[in-house]
Write a structure and sequence with these properties.
DNA_methylase_N6_adenine_CS; methyltransferase; single chain; alpha/beta; globular; Rossmann fold; 7-stranded mixed beta sheet; nucleic acid binding
Length: 214
């Protein structure tokens, strides 16, 4: 029972307090490790997956492959937009940024650590974009809609078509093949993307140009 002097302020038990202190100590050690290892804020996993937001990061090999494909497709001095594809954005940023520019359109505001290149994006409002994001101003758009539904794909497609000069690289489930062709005119590539954690659904890449993923 609490003393009246406590003014009904709840007191943590010594056990809870100890657990909390241990948690904070672990967090401090993690931060310390990041600093001492020359932590790269652009490395995959620097921002952890949030499954409630349907986030599943690509494996390093897949992210590198997609980033390189985007670079080649964009060409020298090209502009690349990553729509709901943060691990590709991170791989692009790991490379020397000279010769291309990239931005990330993402619902998860944790990615705002990337500064001006981060654009808050909600696929439910596909054209609710900043004024400085001009139509058809990106040489290639790479997108990974968060959900395997026609509604999500259709709305994301609106964004993609608004942004791209022409080239589209889409990553989504194999079951979305017909809908991807319907809404974006893309065809399935031979390359099979992998995730850092295995997904239950078969995942594929689609493009509307002669890509290096075949």
């Amino acid at each position: 029972k609490m003393d009246d002097d406590d003014g009904d302020v709840p007191q943590l038990s010594s056990h809870t307090l100890a657990a909390l202190q241990e948690f904070y100590l672990e967090q401090q050690q993690k931060e310390g490790m990041k600093t001492s290892q020359g932590f790269n804020q652009y490395s995959i996993g620097s921002i952890e997956e949030d499954w409630q937001l349907s986030q599943f990061w690509y494996s390093h090999e897949t992210a590198s492959c997609l980033a390189n494909e985007a670079l080649v497709a964009a060409g020298k001095g090209g502009r690349i937009a990553c729509v709901s594809a943060p691990s590709v954005y991170q791989k692009l940023k790991e490379q020397d940024g000279k010769g291309f520019s990239v931005c990330i359109l993402e619902y998860d505001r944790r990615f705002s650590v990337y500064g001006e290149e981060f654009i808050f994006y909600d696929y439910n409002h596909p054209l609710n974009l900043p004024e400085n994001l001009l139509p058809h101003s990106f040489d290639i758009v790479i997108a990974d809609p968060p959900y395997l539904s026609e509604e999500c794909l259709q709305k994301t497609a609106e964004t993609i078509k608004y942004l791209t000069k022409g080239k589209i690289l889409l990553c989504t489930g194999a079951i979305m093949e017909e809908l991807a062709a319907k809404h974006l005119g893309v065809k399935m590539c031979k390359f099979i993307p992998k995730h850092s954690r295995n997904l239950a659904n078969e995942f594929r890449c689609y493009a509307n140009y002669a890509s290096g993923l075949d």
